[in-house]
Amino acid sequence: MSLLDVFKPKWQSSELVVRRQAVQSLGSTDLDALLDVAKNDEDADIRKIAVQKISSSSHLSDLLKTEQDVSVQNAIKETLRKFWLKTVKNHSGELTEEIRKILEELQAKDKDELLTSAKSAEVRMELLNSCSKQGVLAAVAKGDQQESVALAALAKLQSESLLEEIANSKDSSKFESVRNKAKEIYGAIQASKIDPAKEQANLLAQKQKALLSHAARLLENKDTLSIDPEMQRLCAEAENLGKEASALGLEQNSDLNSVFEKHKENVAAEKARIAEEQAKREAEEQAKRAEEERKAQEAKMKEEEMERKAQEASNASIAPEGAEKSTELKEDRDDKEDREDKLSEEEYGAKLPLLQAIIDRVNELDENGDFNEISQSIRQAFYDWKEVVGEKKTQFKNIYKEFRAATSRFQNLQEWASWHAEQIRDQLIKDIEELANAPVVLENRTKAFAMLEQWKTAGYMPATKIQELWPRFKEGLDKIMDSVAPLLKEQEKGQEENLKIKEDICAQIEELAGAEGEWVEQLKKIQELQAKWKNTGYVPKTQNHIIWERYQTAVNAFFKKQEAYKKRISEQINERIAAREKLCEEAEALANSTDWKNTPKTFTKLSADWKAAGSVPVEQYEKLLQRFKKASDTFFENRNAFFDNSRKTREEVCIKLENLNFDASSAESIAAWKAIEEEWKALENNGFSRELNERYYTVSDRIWEAASKSNPEITKELDKNWEVKHGLMEQLKNILEQGNFKFKTLQTVRNLQAEWEKTGRCGVAETEISGKFSELVSSFFSLYNDQKEIRGNLDKINAQKKEELCRQAEALLIKAQSQSLTRAEVASETNALRNAWRESGNVSMHLAKALWKRFNSACNSAWHAFDNTAAEQEAE
User: Fold this and answer.
1) CA nearest 502: which of 476, 538, 477?
2) Residue 854 · residue 802 · CB < 8 Å
3) Which ranges constitute the DSSP H helices of 437-540?
């Protein structure tokens, strides 16, 4: 180890192992030290370690230009690649020129990774242009959060299996447009493989099948004439399909022809029935009219008879009082009828618009719409009509005919819907009976409930028909519920266990939410608990909401800590930024200092404080570092400029001394020499140059020696300086001979060095005695460092011995407290342990105090473990 290593940071040590360990301990914020190592360290492996810790692309690029070792170049390239990858991955917003350049430098595998991880949609779109890997394109099409990027990736996808997966899976992409586009592309690929003639034949068969189903359903309608227009249309369509079948060489569909023939027969029979009924109805109406005419004639004759009798009665005498009373009653009756007619007209006028609105609402219904909605609307219309009309139905006969005409067009639709609902419910009865006889599994219950929902939504049916079908369906439903009841009990047990697991999860999260600790570790733990929650099954329904609320409350409480954590980190970063800004301000205040001796020490301290100031965001660190370096560079540039000037002055003094023709007998020559000596002393604090010092003192020592021969005073001064320095050297020799290399000795040696520097020179003997003194100093520091390392290792060994003695003392205390040993045995072992402690050697002061306290406490407690009574204490 070099003597200078004591005054250098460890990453500049001459020892390879020490230097490597120091560089490994440096952080990314120690950019200055890392750059110095990466540029100047002689070992390639250490330079690689430093390179891997640098996070500045500009500095890495500069290093790559100057680095000669291939392995270090590769390390720089890999570090650059990782930095670029992180930069592109975290970039958001538009595609910049810098990002384009980075993308050009990245490898294909890195581009594939960025396609699924880059934040910027523009970056991902740019990367798609150069990507042809089908698996990567499929991953982007299925998982990208931007619809345009997913569609662009899908457009480049050619794999049929991947296209089919995206097209047919609902979970393949969150964008329906992507799935639809995949279906379109996949369908086009499949269509290109299919025989057009065969495809056309299959399509024709499907059309005929659909047509047959529709026609058969219509044929079941009892109102044959109402479906005749639709059947005529279907017949025409069937003829067209038959022509297409003939063109393709296919056979005609005989089932269709039989359906239409049957319909024709039904139409003919219905028309004959209607004609017969019409004739019968006309005969009945004619007889009815004859009867009405007869009754009208008889009524007319009765009326004429009543008028004759009334005339006769009017001719008779009538009492005045009776006439007046009859007149008053008639007037009262007429007034009452007038009031009733007026009230009825007002009510009629108010209700008429409401009824008309109901009719308009019915007329607006679309026959081709959903029948359940239509049926509900019609029922509501009848209900509303009844509410408006009330008891006076006869007064609204005319408008009621209009209402009936509006609703009559849905009669056939209602019949078909009733038939359709009946078919659905018949099938549901078959399905639930089949399910009731199937193997008993828990899923049967879910299926049964689904069938029950289908039953409820099957549509309108007459109440009598529903009463006929419902018992059969309910019987199957009850049978299924009874069969799965034991399974439900088992499920409830499992749900109870799941509830206990989730309660335990909640308790752990609540504990984490209220505990202090390392945030990263707590976050990792909470994520594990969240994953466990997701993988835990259902809990009882009665507890589901309660446990979920508790879980959400606990998770929310935990993540509230995140805000505090972020705030605390932000505050720490702000404090670090403020500390670095203060260091920048201090450095800037020293930038123009002319204290060349002390200011560098201050800058060294500021640099150490800079390294210890903690990490800050890279962008801000770079700005502050440039500011700090600018101030530092300004000072040292000024200092170097000053020392350059000082060097020139020193060179000039050296030249003056070298050109001096010294004559010890000449007073002028001695005066010139003394003037040069004073001029040199004035430059002692203005920099240092070993070369110029040696150059100057080589000549100066010869002049001093020459002057001493003619001047006793100079001789006396040189002898005195030699004696002082010889005494300092003897002291150093004694220290080396004694072999005492403690810290106080180190301070003594440094004091001797300081005294040596203060003492004047010895003339020509200076070179020899200074060389010997330097050798002694080097020997001392070499031995001191060796002894220091030995002492360190010995301290570790002694510390281990003392640790073992502490454990033995504590074990003895346990035995003494349990009284498994006698008092005499405990005393003997205690004394033996104390003797062993004295022989175990020395350790560092701070460690010695802690170990001694532990050891002595155990020994004392063991010694007095039997002191239970005053008598025993007195005996001791």
Assistant:
1) 538
2) no
3) 443-456, 463-514, 519-535
Are the CB atoms for 28 and 55 separated by under 8 Å?
A: yes
Residues 822, 812 contacting (CB under 8 angstroms): no
Q: Is the dihedral of CA 293, 294, 299, 302 positive or negative?
A: positive
Determine the Cα–Cα distance for residues 788 and 781; give it in Å rounded to an integer.
10
User: Would you state the structure tokens that stand for residue 669, as one six-digit string?
Assistant: 């020559």
Is 617 in a helix, a strand, or coil?
coil
User: Is residue 139 within 8 Å of 133, Cβ to Cβ?
Assistant: no
Helix (H) or strand (E) holding 165: helix 160-168
Model confidence over 681-694: pLDDT tens digits? 777 666 667 777 77
Q: What is the tens place of the pLDDT at every residue in 153-195?
A: 778 777 777 777 777 766 666 677 777 777 777 777 766 555 5
CB 634 within 8 A of CB 592: yes
The dihedral over CA atoms of 336, 340, 345, 348, expressed in degrees to the nearest 10, equals 180
The number of beta carbons lying within 10 Å of the beta carbon of residue 113 is 17
Residue whose C-alpha is closest to residue 858's, from 800, 792, 802: 802
Q: What does 517-551 look like in DSSP terms, one character per residue?
A: --HHHHHHHHHHHHHHHHHS----HHHHHHHHHHH
209, amino acid identity: K
Phi then psi for 436, rounded to 5 degrees?
A: -65, -30
Please state the rounded mean pLDDT for residues 783-795. 77
State residue 799's pLDDT score: 86
- DSSP tag of 864: T
* Confidence (pLDDT) at 197: 60
In 3-state terms, what secondary structure has residue 13? coil
Per-chain mean pLDDT for the chain = 77
Kindly indicate the confidence band of residue 343, based on its pLDDT and cuts at 50, 70 and 90: very low
Q: How far is CA 639 from the centre of its chain?
A: 53
Q: What is the pTM of this model?
A: 0.32
The DSSP secondary structure of 793-858, one letter per residue, reads HHHHHHHHHHHHHHHHHHHHHHHHHHT-S-HHHHHHHHHHHHHHHHHS----HHHHHHHHHHHHHH
